[in-house]
Amino acid sequence: MSAASMQMTEDQFLCSICLDVFTDPVTIPCGHNFCKACITQHWNVNVPSQCPNCKEVFYTRPELKVNTFISEMAAQFRQSAQQKASSSSSEQQAAKPGEVPCDVCTGTKLKALKSCLVCLDSFCETHLEPHLTRAGLKRHQLIDPVENLEGRMCTKHDKLLELFCKTDQMCVCKLCTVLDHKNHDVVPLKEEYEGKKAELGKTDDEIQQMIQMRRLKIQEIKHSVELSEEDADREIAGGVQVFTALKESVERSQAELIDTIKEKQRKTEKQAEGLIKELEQEICELKKRSTEVEQLSRSEDHLHLLQSFRTLKAAPPTKNWTGVRVSPPSYEGTVVRAVTQLEETLSNQMKKLVAEVELKRVQQSAVDVTLDPDTAQPNLILSDDGKQVKLGDVKNNLLDNPERFDTCRIVLAKQSFSSGRFYYEVQVKGKTKWDLGVVRESINRKGSITASPQEGFWTIKLRNQNEYSARDDPPVRLSLKSRPQKVGVFVDYEEGLVSFHDVDAAALIYSFTGCCFTEKLYPFFNPCNNDGGKNSAPLIISPVNHTE
Protein backbone atom coordinates (compact mmCIF):
# COMPACT_ATOMS: atom_id res chain seq x y z
CA MET A 1 0.00 0.00 0.00
CA SER A 2 2.87 2.32 0.80
CA ALA A 3 4.33 1.87 -2.70
CA ALA A 4 0.94 2.55 -4.20
CA SER A 5 0.41 5.70 -2.17
CA MET A 6 3.70 7.12 -3.34
CA GLN A 7 2.40 6.98 -6.90
CA MET A 8 -0.69 9.03 -6.03
CA THR A 9 -0.74 12.79 -6.54
CA GLU A 10 -1.48 15.39 -3.89
CA ASP A 11 -4.76 16.41 -5.57
CA GLN A 12 -6.17 12.90 -5.06
CA PHE A 13 -5.93 13.34 -1.26
CA LEU A 14 -7.27 16.91 -1.02
CA CYS A 15 -10.75 17.72 0.16
CA SER A 16 -12.39 20.04 -2.37
CA ILE A 17 -13.96 22.07 0.44
CA CYS A 18 -10.98 22.83 2.69
CA LEU A 19 -8.38 22.14 -0.01
CA ASP A 20 -6.32 20.21 2.54
CA VAL A 21 -5.37 16.53 2.89
CA PHE A 22 -8.39 14.47 4.01
CA THR A 23 -9.13 14.28 7.71
CA ASP A 24 -11.66 11.53 8.56
CA PRO A 25 -12.62 11.16 4.88
CA VAL A 26 -16.19 10.07 4.06
CA THR A 27 -17.70 8.98 0.75
CA ILE A 28 -21.20 10.28 -0.06
CA PRO A 29 -23.64 8.32 -2.32
CA CYS A 30 -22.57 10.07 -5.56
CA GLY A 31 -19.02 8.75 -5.01
CA HIS A 32 -17.19 11.97 -4.07
CA ASN A 33 -15.01 12.20 -0.96
CA PHE A 34 -14.73 14.97 1.64
CA CYS A 35 -13.51 15.55 5.19
CA LYS A 36 -16.32 14.53 7.49
CA ALA A 37 -16.32 17.89 9.26
CA CYS A 38 -16.20 19.82 5.97
CA ILE A 39 -19.22 18.13 4.36
CA THR A 40 -21.17 18.24 7.61
CA GLN A 41 -20.61 22.00 7.96
CA HIS A 42 -21.47 22.47 4.25
CA TRP A 43 -24.79 20.66 4.67
CA ASN A 44 -25.58 22.60 7.82
CA VAL A 45 -25.41 25.81 5.76
CA ASN A 46 -26.88 24.56 2.49
CA VAL A 47 -30.33 22.90 2.47
CA PRO A 48 -31.20 20.52 0.91
CA SER A 49 -28.03 18.44 1.09
CA GLN A 50 -26.11 18.70 -2.17
CA CYS A 51 -22.74 17.41 -3.44
CA PRO A 52 -20.40 20.43 -3.84
CA ASN A 53 -18.78 18.77 -6.86
CA CYS A 54 -21.50 17.24 -9.04
CA LYS A 55 -24.45 19.13 -7.45
CA GLU A 56 -26.47 15.92 -6.90
CA VAL A 57 -29.20 16.62 -4.34
CA PHE A 58 -29.92 14.26 -1.40
CA TYR A 59 -33.31 15.11 0.08
CA THR A 60 -32.51 12.82 3.01
CA ARG A 61 -29.10 13.62 4.49
CA PRO A 62 -26.88 10.56 4.03
CA GLU A 63 -25.36 8.90 7.06
CA LEU A 64 -21.62 9.62 7.08
CA LYS A 65 -19.09 6.95 7.92
CA VAL A 66 -15.31 7.31 7.70
CA ASN A 67 -13.84 5.56 4.68
CA THR A 68 -11.03 3.67 6.40
CA PHE A 69 -9.25 2.82 3.17
CA ILE A 70 -9.01 6.45 2.02
CA SER A 71 -8.17 7.49 5.58
CA GLU A 72 -5.19 5.13 5.66
CA MET A 73 -4.07 6.23 2.22
CA ALA A 74 -4.30 9.91 3.22
CA ALA A 75 -2.35 9.26 6.41
CA GLN A 76 0.40 7.50 4.50
CA PHE A 77 0.47 10.28 1.94
CA ARG A 78 0.71 12.91 4.71
CA GLN A 79 3.58 10.97 6.30
CA SER A 80 5.30 10.61 2.93
CA ALA A 81 4.86 14.34 2.26
CA GLN A 82 6.39 15.19 5.61
CA GLN A 83 9.37 12.91 5.00
CA LYS A 84 9.82 14.36 1.53
CA ALA A 85 9.64 17.90 2.92
CA SER A 86 12.22 17.03 5.56
CA SER A 87 14.61 15.35 3.13
CA SER A 88 14.34 17.97 0.40
CA SER A 89 14.46 21.13 2.49
CA SER A 90 18.17 21.47 1.80
CA GLU A 91 17.53 21.22 -1.92
CA GLN A 92 15.04 24.06 -2.09
CA GLN A 93 16.00 27.03 -4.15
CA ALA A 94 15.92 30.67 -3.20
CA ALA A 95 13.01 32.66 -4.57
CA LYS A 96 13.85 34.20 -7.93
CA PRO A 97 12.63 37.60 -9.12
CA GLY A 98 8.93 37.32 -9.88
CA GLU A 99 8.45 34.34 -7.51
CA VAL A 100 6.70 34.61 -4.14
CA PRO A 101 9.21 34.30 -1.24
CA CYS A 102 8.53 32.50 2.05
CA ASP A 103 7.53 35.01 4.77
CA VAL A 104 8.96 32.84 7.58
CA CYS A 105 12.44 32.22 6.19
CA THR A 106 15.22 34.29 7.71
CA GLY A 107 18.27 35.13 5.69
CA THR A 108 17.82 33.61 2.23
CA LYS A 109 14.12 33.63 1.33
CA LEU A 110 13.09 30.29 -0.23
CA LYS A 111 10.40 29.93 -2.87
CA ALA A 112 6.90 29.72 -1.34
CA LEU A 113 4.71 26.73 -2.22
CA LYS A 114 1.45 27.92 -0.66
CA SER A 115 -0.11 31.04 0.83
CA CYS A 116 -2.48 30.86 3.82
CA LEU A 117 -5.56 33.08 3.75
CA VAL A 118 -5.89 32.83 7.52
CA CYS A 119 -2.29 33.52 8.50
CA LEU A 120 -1.84 35.94 5.59
CA ASP A 121 1.62 34.49 5.04
CA SER A 122 3.31 32.48 2.30
CA PHE A 123 5.31 29.35 3.17
CA CYS A 124 8.11 27.38 1.59
CA GLU A 125 8.01 23.59 1.63
CA THR A 126 9.65 23.38 5.08
CA HIS A 127 7.53 26.05 6.79
CA LEU A 128 4.35 24.71 5.17
CA GLU A 129 4.69 21.43 7.07
CA PRO A 130 2.73 22.55 10.20
CA HIS A 131 -0.28 23.39 8.02
CA LEU A 132 -0.20 19.82 6.74
CA THR A 133 0.17 18.08 10.10
CA ARG A 134 -1.24 20.18 12.93
CA ALA A 135 -4.96 19.86 13.54
CA GLY A 136 -5.45 23.55 14.25
CA LEU A 137 -3.66 24.65 11.08
CA LYS A 138 -4.99 21.99 8.74
CA ARG A 139 -8.27 23.82 8.48
CA HIS A 140 -6.64 27.00 7.20
CA GLN A 141 -7.38 27.73 3.57
CA LEU A 142 -4.26 27.30 1.44
CA ILE A 143 -3.92 28.65 -2.09
CA ASP A 144 -1.16 28.83 -4.67
CA PRO A 145 1.42 31.39 -3.56
CA VAL A 146 0.45 35.01 -4.13
CA GLU A 147 2.01 38.31 -3.18
CA ASN A 148 0.29 41.11 -1.29
CA LEU A 149 -1.84 38.97 0.98
CA GLU A 150 -2.72 42.20 2.75
CA GLY A 151 -4.84 42.96 -0.28
CA ARG A 152 -7.17 40.23 0.98
CA MET A 153 -7.88 42.30 4.07
CA CYS A 154 -10.55 44.99 4.27
CA THR A 155 -8.65 48.30 4.21
CA LYS A 156 -11.38 49.98 6.24
CA HIS A 157 -11.92 47.45 9.00
CA ASP A 158 -8.70 45.38 8.81
CA LYS A 159 -10.77 42.19 8.60
CA LEU A 160 -10.47 39.26 6.16
CA LEU A 161 -12.45 39.71 2.94
CA GLU A 162 -14.57 36.58 3.23
CA LEU A 163 -17.94 37.77 1.91
CA PHE A 164 -19.19 39.12 -1.41
CA CYS A 165 -21.74 41.91 -1.79
CA LYS A 166 -23.79 41.06 -4.88
CA THR A 167 -25.49 44.44 -4.69
CA ASP A 168 -22.24 46.39 -5.08
CA GLN A 169 -20.32 43.55 -6.75
CA MET A 170 -17.37 43.73 -4.36
CA CYS A 171 -15.60 41.67 -1.71
CA VAL A 172 -16.35 42.75 1.89
CA CYS A 173 -15.58 41.70 5.46
CA LYS A 174 -18.14 40.73 8.09
CA LEU A 175 -18.07 44.20 9.62
CA CYS A 176 -18.87 45.76 6.24
CA THR A 177 -22.18 43.88 6.17
CA VAL A 178 -23.21 45.54 9.39
CA LEU A 179 -22.16 49.03 8.40
CA ASP A 180 -21.62 50.05 4.77
CA HIS A 181 -23.46 47.11 3.15
CA LYS A 182 -26.34 46.70 5.53
CA ASN A 183 -29.43 45.09 3.90
CA HIS A 184 -27.37 44.28 0.79
CA ASP A 185 -27.43 40.86 -0.83
CA VAL A 186 -24.29 39.35 0.72
CA VAL A 187 -23.11 35.75 0.25
CA PRO A 188 -20.02 33.82 1.36
CA LEU A 189 -17.02 34.34 -0.86
CA LYS A 190 -16.97 30.62 -1.69
CA GLU A 191 -20.58 30.67 -2.84
CA GLU A 192 -19.96 33.58 -5.21
CA TYR A 193 -16.71 31.91 -6.25
CA GLU A 194 -18.57 28.75 -7.21
CA GLY A 195 -21.15 30.77 -9.11
CA LYS A 196 -18.53 32.75 -10.97
CA LYS A 197 -16.55 29.57 -11.56
CA ALA A 198 -19.66 28.01 -13.08
CA GLU A 199 -20.04 31.11 -15.27
CA LEU A 200 -16.41 30.81 -16.30
CA GLY A 201 -17.01 27.16 -17.08
CA LYS A 202 -19.95 28.15 -19.27
CA THR A 203 -17.88 30.89 -20.85
CA ASP A 204 -15.08 28.42 -21.45
CA ASP A 205 -17.57 25.99 -23.02
CA GLU A 206 -18.73 28.77 -25.32
CA ILE A 207 -15.14 29.65 -26.16
CA GLN A 208 -14.31 26.00 -26.81
CA GLN A 209 -17.38 25.78 -29.04
CA MET A 210 -16.22 28.88 -30.92
CA ILE A 211 -12.75 27.35 -31.22
CA GLN A 212 -14.25 24.12 -32.53
CA MET A 213 -16.39 26.03 -35.02
CA ARG A 214 -13.32 27.83 -36.27
CA ARG A 215 -11.36 24.60 -36.49
CA LEU A 216 -14.18 23.14 -38.54
CA LYS A 217 -14.15 26.26 -40.69
CA ILE A 218 -10.39 25.83 -41.16
CA GLN A 219 -10.99 22.23 -42.24
CA GLU A 220 -13.75 23.42 -44.57
CA ILE A 221 -11.46 26.06 -46.08
CA LYS A 222 -8.61 23.55 -46.42
CA HIS A 223 -11.01 21.10 -48.07
CA SER A 224 -12.15 23.85 -50.44
CA VAL A 225 -8.51 24.55 -51.30
CA GLU A 226 -7.95 20.82 -51.92
CA LEU A 227 -11.00 20.69 -54.18
CA SER A 228 -9.82 23.84 -55.93
CA GLU A 229 -6.39 22.27 -56.40
CA GLU A 230 -7.97 19.13 -57.85
CA ASP A 231 -10.11 21.26 -60.18
CA ALA A 232 -7.03 23.28 -61.15
CA ASP A 233 -5.06 20.10 -61.89
CA ARG A 234 -7.91 18.76 -64.02
CA GLU A 235 -8.23 22.06 -65.87
CA ILE A 236 -4.47 22.24 -66.46
CA ALA A 237 -4.45 18.65 -67.72
CA GLY A 238 -7.41 19.41 -69.97
CA GLY A 239 -5.81 22.62 -71.19
CA VAL A 240 -2.52 20.84 -71.92
CA GLN A 241 -4.44 18.18 -73.82
CA VAL A 242 -6.32 20.77 -75.89
CA PHE A 243 -3.29 22.92 -76.67
CA THR A 244 -1.11 19.89 -77.40
CA ALA A 245 -3.68 18.65 -79.89
CA LEU A 246 -3.98 22.13 -81.42
CA LYS A 247 -0.21 22.45 -81.59
CA GLU A 248 -0.01 19.09 -83.38
CA SER A 249 -2.67 20.26 -85.82
CA VAL A 250 -0.73 23.44 -86.53
CA GLU A 251 2.46 21.45 -87.03
CA ARG A 252 0.65 19.04 -89.38
CA SER A 253 -0.80 21.95 -91.37
CA GLN A 254 2.64 23.56 -91.55
CA ALA A 255 4.18 20.30 -92.76
CA GLU A 256 1.40 19.90 -95.36
CA LEU A 257 1.97 23.49 -96.58
CA ILE A 258 5.70 22.90 -96.90
CA ASP A 259 5.10 19.58 -98.69
CA THR A 260 2.66 21.25 -101.13
CA ILE A 261 5.14 24.00 -102.00
CA LYS A 262 8.02 21.55 -102.31
CA GLU A 263 5.95 19.26 -104.52
CA LYS A 264 5.25 22.16 -106.90
CA GLN A 265 8.95 22.95 -106.91
CA ARG A 266 9.82 19.30 -107.58
CA LYS A 267 7.43 19.23 -110.59
CA THR A 268 9.00 22.44 -111.95
CA GLU A 269 12.50 21.00 -111.51
CA LYS A 270 11.48 17.74 -113.18
CA GLN A 271 9.98 19.62 -116.13
CA ALA A 272 13.11 21.73 -116.46
CA GLU A 273 15.36 18.65 -116.24
CA GLY A 274 13.43 17.00 -119.10
CA LEU A 275 13.69 20.07 -121.33
CA ILE A 276 17.39 20.52 -120.54
CA LYS A 277 18.08 16.88 -121.33
CA GLU A 278 16.26 17.19 -124.65
CA LEU A 279 18.14 20.40 -125.49
CA GLU A 280 21.46 18.80 -124.61
CA GLN A 281 20.68 15.87 -126.93
CA GLU A 282 19.93 18.26 -129.80
CA ILE A 283 23.12 20.19 -129.08
CA CYS A 284 25.03 16.93 -129.23
CA GLU A 285 23.49 16.12 -132.62
CA LEU A 286 24.17 19.61 -133.91
CA LYS A 287 27.82 19.44 -132.81
CA LYS A 288 28.18 16.13 -134.60
CA ARG A 289 26.76 17.69 -137.78
CA SER A 290 29.02 20.72 -137.32
CA THR A 291 32.06 18.43 -137.19
CA GLU A 292 30.97 16.64 -140.37
CA VAL A 293 30.39 19.98 -142.15
CA GLU A 294 33.81 21.23 -141.08
CA GLN A 295 35.52 18.05 -142.27
CA LEU A 296 33.71 18.18 -145.59
CA SER A 297 34.63 21.82 -146.08
CA ARG A 298 38.30 20.85 -145.87
CA SER A 299 37.98 18.11 -148.48
CA GLU A 300 39.99 18.56 -151.70
CA ASP A 301 37.92 15.88 -153.40
CA HIS A 302 35.49 17.69 -155.71
CA LEU A 303 33.32 14.72 -156.38
CA HIS A 304 33.02 13.69 -152.71
CA LEU A 305 32.10 17.19 -151.55
CA LEU A 306 29.40 17.53 -154.19
CA GLN A 307 27.96 14.10 -153.51
CA SER A 308 27.85 14.69 -149.67
CA PHE A 309 26.71 18.26 -149.76
CA ARG A 310 23.00 17.55 -150.15
CA THR A 311 22.96 15.28 -147.11
CA LEU A 312 24.93 17.60 -144.88
CA LYS A 313 23.11 20.74 -145.97
CA ALA A 314 19.79 19.57 -144.58
CA ALA A 315 19.49 20.49 -140.83
CA PRO A 316 19.20 17.57 -138.45
CA PRO A 317 15.67 16.96 -137.01
CA THR A 318 15.29 19.41 -134.11
CA LYS A 319 12.47 20.97 -132.08
CA ASN A 320 11.29 24.54 -132.38
CA TRP A 321 12.13 25.96 -128.95
CA THR A 322 10.84 29.45 -129.53
CA GLY A 323 7.66 29.05 -127.52
CA VAL A 324 9.02 26.69 -124.92
CA ARG A 325 9.09 28.21 -121.40
CA VAL A 326 9.56 26.90 -117.84
CA SER A 327 7.27 29.13 -115.80
CA PRO A 328 7.88 29.19 -112.00
CA PRO A 329 4.84 27.76 -110.13
CA SER A 330 2.47 30.27 -108.59
CA TYR A 331 2.37 30.13 -104.78
CA GLU A 332 -0.05 33.00 -104.49
CA GLY A 333 -2.86 32.18 -102.04
CA THR A 334 -1.19 28.93 -100.90
CA VAL A 335 -0.49 30.17 -97.40
CA VAL A 336 -3.83 31.95 -97.14
CA ARG A 337 -5.72 28.82 -98.20
CA ALA A 338 -3.68 26.70 -95.76
CA VAL A 339 -4.33 29.11 -92.89
CA THR A 340 -8.04 29.31 -93.70
CA GLN A 341 -8.29 25.54 -93.75
CA LEU A 342 -6.27 25.39 -90.52
CA GLU A 343 -8.61 27.85 -88.86
CA GLU A 344 -11.60 25.71 -89.78
CA THR A 345 -9.86 22.54 -88.65
CA LEU A 346 -8.71 24.10 -85.38
CA SER A 347 -12.15 25.54 -84.70
CA ASN A 348 -13.84 22.17 -85.13
CA GLN A 349 -11.13 20.34 -83.25
CA MET A 350 -11.10 22.90 -80.46
CA LYS A 351 -14.86 22.64 -80.00
CA LYS A 352 -14.57 18.86 -79.88
CA LEU A 353 -11.64 18.87 -77.46
CA VAL A 354 -13.24 21.45 -75.18
CA ALA A 355 -16.45 19.42 -75.13
CA GLU A 356 -14.46 16.29 -74.24
CA VAL A 357 -12.59 18.09 -71.45
CA GLU A 358 -15.83 19.62 -70.17
CA LEU A 359 -17.54 16.22 -70.16
CA LYS A 360 -14.65 14.72 -68.19
CA ARG A 361 -14.90 17.57 -65.72
CA VAL A 362 -18.64 17.34 -65.11
CA GLN A 363 -18.48 13.54 -64.84
CA GLN A 364 -16.38 14.05 -61.70
CA SER A 365 -19.63 15.22 -60.03
CA ALA A 366 -21.54 12.00 -60.78
CA VAL A 367 -24.23 11.04 -58.23
CA ASP A 368 -26.47 8.02 -57.79
CA VAL A 369 -30.03 8.82 -58.87
CA THR A 370 -33.14 6.66 -58.44
CA LEU A 371 -36.76 7.32 -59.38
CA ASP A 372 -39.32 8.25 -56.72
CA PRO A 373 -42.53 6.17 -57.10
CA ASP A 374 -44.43 8.66 -54.90
CA THR A 375 -44.09 11.29 -57.66
CA ALA A 376 -44.80 9.05 -60.69
CA GLN A 377 -47.90 9.75 -62.79
CA PRO A 378 -50.19 6.68 -62.47
CA ASN A 379 -49.67 5.54 -66.09
CA LEU A 380 -45.91 5.20 -65.64
CA ILE A 381 -44.16 1.90 -64.93
CA LEU A 382 -40.99 2.01 -62.83
CA SER A 383 -38.44 -0.80 -62.58
CA ASP A 384 -37.84 -2.45 -59.21
CA ASP A 385 -34.40 -0.86 -58.92
CA GLY A 386 -35.79 2.61 -59.68
CA LYS A 387 -33.53 3.07 -62.71
CA GLN A 388 -36.04 2.75 -65.61
CA VAL A 389 -39.38 4.35 -66.51
CA LYS A 390 -41.77 3.80 -69.40
CA LEU A 391 -45.43 4.41 -70.18
CA GLY A 392 -47.87 1.60 -69.40
CA ASP A 393 -51.18 0.76 -71.06
CA VAL A 394 -53.21 0.82 -67.83
CA LYS A 395 -53.54 3.57 -65.25
CA ASN A 396 -52.42 2.34 -61.85
CA ASN A 397 -54.67 2.92 -58.84
CA LEU A 398 -52.32 5.04 -56.75
CA LEU A 399 -52.81 7.46 -53.88
CA ASP A 400 -53.07 11.00 -55.22
CA ASN A 401 -50.61 12.52 -52.76
CA PRO A 402 -49.42 16.16 -53.16
CA GLU A 403 -46.07 15.05 -54.63
CA ARG A 404 -47.59 12.96 -57.45
CA PHE A 405 -48.10 14.22 -61.02
CA ASP A 406 -51.70 13.40 -61.99
CA THR A 407 -51.83 14.29 -65.70
CA CYS A 408 -48.39 14.84 -67.26
CA ARG A 409 -46.28 11.66 -67.64
CA ILE A 410 -43.56 12.81 -65.26
CA VAL A 411 -41.56 11.24 -62.45
CA LEU A 412 -38.87 12.87 -60.28
CA ALA A 413 -35.85 11.39 -58.56
CA LYS A 414 -35.78 10.64 -54.84
CA GLN A 415 -32.60 12.64 -54.47
CA SER A 416 -32.69 16.43 -54.14
CA PHE A 417 -29.83 18.93 -54.30
CA SER A 418 -29.60 22.40 -52.77
CA SER A 419 -25.89 23.14 -53.17
CA GLY A 420 -22.73 22.11 -55.01
CA ARG A 421 -22.57 20.19 -58.29
CA PHE A 422 -24.20 16.99 -59.49
CA TYR A 423 -24.29 14.96 -62.71
CA TYR A 424 -26.16 11.92 -63.98
CA GLU A 425 -26.67 10.15 -67.34
CA VAL A 426 -29.85 8.84 -68.99
CA GLN A 427 -30.03 6.40 -71.90
CA VAL A 428 -32.55 7.59 -74.53
CA LYS A 429 -31.67 5.00 -77.18
CA GLY A 430 -34.63 3.80 -79.25
CA LYS A 431 -36.94 6.66 -78.24
CA THR A 432 -38.66 9.17 -80.52
CA LYS A 433 -39.86 11.47 -77.72
CA TRP A 434 -38.57 12.37 -74.26
CA ASP A 435 -38.05 15.22 -71.80
CA LEU A 436 -35.10 15.46 -69.37
CA GLY A 437 -33.67 18.00 -66.95
CA VAL A 438 -34.13 19.34 -63.42
CA VAL A 439 -36.99 21.11 -61.67
CA ARG A 440 -37.42 23.02 -58.43
CA GLU A 441 -39.35 21.48 -55.56
CA SER A 442 -42.34 23.84 -55.69
CA ILE A 443 -43.38 23.22 -59.33
CA ASN A 444 -47.02 22.59 -60.21
CA ARG A 445 -47.71 18.84 -60.28
CA LYS A 446 -51.41 18.79 -61.04
CA GLY A 447 -53.23 19.26 -64.33
CA SER A 448 -51.66 20.90 -67.36
CA ILE A 449 -48.07 22.04 -66.85
CA THR A 450 -46.05 24.74 -68.63
CA ALA A 451 -42.36 23.84 -68.68
CA SER A 452 -40.05 26.87 -68.62
CA PRO A 453 -37.35 28.29 -66.32
CA GLN A 454 -39.86 30.85 -65.07
CA GLU A 455 -42.07 27.97 -63.88
CA GLY A 456 -39.13 26.10 -62.36
CA PHE A 457 -38.24 23.75 -65.27
CA TRP A 458 -34.80 23.55 -66.90
CA THR A 459 -35.31 20.83 -69.52
CA ILE A 460 -34.69 19.79 -73.13
CA LYS A 461 -36.95 17.61 -75.25
CA LEU A 462 -37.10 15.44 -78.37
CA ARG A 463 -40.15 15.26 -80.63
CA ASN A 464 -40.75 13.40 -83.90
CA GLN A 465 -37.39 11.55 -83.78
CA ASN A 466 -35.15 14.50 -84.68
CA GLU A 467 -36.75 17.73 -83.44
CA TYR A 468 -34.68 18.76 -80.42
CA SER A 469 -35.36 21.92 -78.43
CA ALA A 470 -34.54 23.55 -75.11
CA ARG A 471 -37.52 24.72 -73.08
CA ASP A 472 -35.97 28.11 -72.46
CA ASP A 473 -37.83 31.41 -72.51
CA PRO A 474 -38.34 31.65 -75.47
CA PRO A 475 -37.83 27.99 -76.57
CA VAL A 476 -34.63 27.30 -78.53
CA ARG A 477 -34.52 24.93 -81.51
CA LEU A 478 -31.41 22.73 -81.34
CA SER A 479 -29.44 21.60 -84.38
CA LEU A 480 -27.49 18.45 -83.49
CA LYS A 481 -25.00 16.67 -85.75
CA SER A 482 -26.00 13.27 -84.38
CA ARG A 483 -28.86 11.80 -82.36
CA PRO A 484 -27.76 11.36 -78.72
CA GLN A 485 -28.08 7.81 -77.39
CA LYS A 486 -27.15 8.84 -73.85
CA VAL A 487 -27.67 12.30 -72.35
CA GLY A 488 -25.67 13.68 -69.41
CA VAL A 489 -27.26 16.30 -67.17
CA PHE A 490 -24.99 18.58 -65.07
CA VAL A 491 -25.96 21.22 -62.50
CA ASP A 492 -23.77 23.75 -60.70
CA TYR A 493 -26.12 25.15 -58.06
CA GLU A 494 -24.02 28.14 -57.01
CA GLU A 495 -23.08 29.08 -60.61
CA GLY A 496 -26.71 28.84 -61.75
CA LEU A 497 -25.81 26.43 -64.57
CA VAL A 498 -27.70 23.49 -66.10
CA SER A 499 -25.99 21.82 -69.08
CA PHE A 500 -26.86 18.83 -71.26
CA HIS A 501 -24.26 16.65 -72.99
CA ASP A 502 -24.22 14.01 -75.74
CA VAL A 503 -22.12 11.45 -73.85
CA ASP A 504 -21.06 9.27 -76.80
CA ALA A 505 -20.13 12.25 -79.01
CA ALA A 506 -18.68 14.18 -76.04
CA ALA A 507 -20.58 17.20 -77.32
CA LEU A 508 -22.43 19.97 -75.51
CA ILE A 509 -26.13 19.98 -76.40
CA TYR A 510 -27.35 23.08 -74.54
CA SER A 511 -26.73 25.15 -71.40
CA PHE A 512 -29.06 27.20 -69.23
CA THR A 513 -26.89 29.94 -67.68
CA GLY A 514 -27.48 32.71 -65.16
CA CYS A 515 -30.13 30.68 -63.32
CA CYS A 516 -31.07 31.69 -59.77
CA PHE A 517 -31.68 28.62 -57.62
CA THR A 518 -33.29 29.12 -54.19
CA GLU A 519 -35.00 25.75 -53.65
CA LYS A 520 -34.16 22.08 -53.79
CA LEU A 521 -33.66 20.74 -57.32
CA TYR A 522 -34.87 17.31 -58.45
CA PRO A 523 -33.86 15.34 -61.58
CA PHE A 524 -36.83 15.22 -63.97
CA PHE A 525 -37.91 12.44 -66.40
CA ASN A 526 -40.72 12.27 -68.97
CA PRO A 527 -40.77 9.21 -71.28
CA CYS A 528 -43.74 10.73 -73.24
CA ASN A 529 -46.43 8.69 -75.02
CA ASN A 530 -45.69 5.45 -76.88
CA ASP A 531 -46.13 7.05 -80.32
CA GLY A 532 -47.90 4.01 -81.73
CA GLY A 533 -45.26 1.67 -80.34
CA LYS A 534 -42.32 3.64 -81.77
CA ASN A 535 -41.54 5.20 -78.39
CA SER A 536 -42.05 2.22 -76.08
CA ALA A 537 -38.37 2.04 -75.02
CA PRO A 538 -37.75 3.16 -71.42
CA LEU A 539 -35.65 6.01 -70.13
CA ILE A 540 -32.77 4.35 -68.28
CA ILE A 541 -30.61 5.99 -65.60
CA SER A 542 -27.15 4.67 -66.48
CA PRO A 543 -23.98 4.34 -64.40
CA VAL A 544 -21.39 6.95 -65.34
CA ASN A 545 -18.35 5.55 -67.14
CA HIS A 546 -15.73 8.30 -67.02
CA THR A 547 -14.36 9.04 -70.49
CA GLU A 548 -10.68 8.37 -71.05
Based on DSSP secondary structure assignment, what is the total number of beta strands? 23
Strand line-up of the largest beta sheet: 11-12-23-14-19-20-21
Biggest sheet architecture: 7 strands, antiparallel
Name the overall outline: elongated
Question: Which homologous superfamily in CATH is the superfamily of the largest domain?
Answer: SPRY domain
Strand content: 15-25%
Which CATH architecture of the largest domain is right? Sandwich
CATH class of the largest domain: Mainly Beta
Rg, Cα atoms, Å: 52 Å
**Can you tell me the residue ranges where pLDDT is under 50 for at least 5 consecutive residues?**
1-6
Q: Work out the count of structural domains.
A: 4
Number of helices: 9
Mean pLDDT: 87
What's the multimeric state?
single chain
Helix proportion range: 25-40%
Q: State the distance separating the first and last CA atoms.
A: 72 Å
Structural class by helix and strand composition: alpha+beta
Protein model, in words:
The protein is an alpha+beta fold. It has 4 domains: 1-88, 2-Layer Sandwich (Herpes Virus-1), CATH 3.30.40; 153-184; 230-317 and 330-361; 380-542, SPRY domain (Jelly Rolls, Sandwich), CATH 2.60.120.920. It has 9 helices and 23 strands. The chain has helices at residues 2-6, 36-45, 68-88, 129-133, 135-138, 174-178, 189-297, 302-313, 334-363; strands at residues 25-27, 33-35, 49-50, 57-58, 114-116, 121-123, 142-143, 163-165, 170-172, 186-188, 380-382, 388-391, 411-412, 421-427, 434-440, 457-463, 467-470, 476-478, 486-492, 497-502, 507-512, 521-526, 539-542. The strands form 6 sheets. Strands 11-12-23-14-19-20-21 form a 7-stranded antiparallel β-sheet, covered by helices on one side. Strands 13-22-15-16-17-18 form a 6-stranded antiparallel β-sheet, with no helix packed on it. A hairpin with a 3-residue loop joins β16 and β17 (467-470). α7 (189-297) packs antiparallel against α9 (334-363). The longest helix is centred in the middle third of the chain and has 109 residues, at 189-297. The protein is elongated and about 175 Å long. Mean pLDDT is 87; it is low at 1-6.
